[in-house]
Amino acid sequence: MSDSVSQQIEQVVKNNDVVLFMKGTPDFPQCGFSQRVAAILNSYEIPFSAVNVLLSNDVREGIKAYSDWPTIPQLYVNAEFVGGCDIVSEMHDGGELEELLAPYKK
Amino acid sequence: MAPKPEEVVDMIRQSIPDAVVEVNVYSGDDHFELRVISSSFSGKTRIQQHKMVYAALGEQMKQAIHALALKTSTPKENT
Fold this sequence. Notes:
heterodimer; A: alpha+beta; Glutaredoxin; four-stranded mixed β-sheet; 4 strands; globular; B: 79 residues; alpha+beta; GMP Synthetase, Chain A, domain 3; 4 helices
């Protein structure tokens, strides 16, 4: 991964409280797992940024190297990697996600 | 093409010997569900636990991982 891509990713992760790297957009998700995480985030009515990795293969592969995590979607809160669809769903079901996202409610 | 359940169990057991592994393969599409229970997960975050399973599944499973729904727990959490 080139420095510029990793710097771009670092910037996005640091400059957005809640950011989801996904396939497609929250309104037009292009994969079931991405759709599920976007829907979960929408249910909390918190502002979040979304990066459509399908627009750049560098970002699509770069984000996997950045977090050492093999799949998309990837959720970051307060510049920390939270997880992919499985972990976000499990945290959502267990109430942990609500706690984590509480500070970012409108 | 989703892997055969026995393949998945063997691969995981090679890296996580005490793992109890439950595999559900959905023949319709190539999604598969995996539950892995191991005492070696204790004290680790979910992310670390999942990374252990991904590492156990290895390189040739990289493609299959996209269709994987994974749940990990320690024996205590599972009771």
